[in-house]
Design a protein that fits this description.
Elements: H1 24-30, E1 36-43, H2 46-49, E2 51-59, E3 65-73, E4 78-88, H3 90-104, E5 108-110, H4 113-129, H5 138-141, E6 166-168, H6 175-185, E7 192-194
Parallel strand pairs: 6-7
Antiparallel strand pairs: 1-2, 1-5, 2-3, 3-4
Amino acid sequence: MAKSKNKRKKKKPASPNQMKPLSPENYIRKISRKLDVLECKINDDWQESGLAVIALVRQKKSGRLVLTSFVVDLKCLGVKNTAYWVDVYNDFYEDWLSKMSEGMDLNMVKIEPNLAYNIIYGAVDYAAAAGFEPQEDYKITKYNLAEQDTLIPESVTFGGEDGKPLFIAGPYDNSQKIMATLQRNLGEGNFHFIAAPF
């Protein structure tokens, strides 16, 4: 019997050059923590204001950057906003940092990444106890932080002066929803509220 000439050809495994590049989200999830931290900055008044704006930058071997930013409410809500950029250059980072600092009237200073990790993770845990989840993109940007169980603990204060959550209403906050969450999870007298002047 003649052998069939229509044998299926075995597919060769894709070479590394043919591999589909990771999306920015998957790059951060799978690779970002392996990169060296280039710089970490925070607004110098974060302890007094209770609002920390953090920029964490890691650098790839190519010189391009992975940039993540976090707006963190240490008094009540945890991570209010976070964003990420992958494969940007230093001039993009410097321009973004300058515009963000000027727009929010912040003086950004360098800090050790470990302190930033303690602020972010601590604020997320503190807010969770009152019923608040971090902004949606935190599911991605948290992978640019060191793993929580590897941190060196640092003393960071959360909540108001008495340790109870202090909600300071901002112009973009859904105050009614936030107050309802505090009432439901903590009860009257177990949190404080300040309406921001408009």
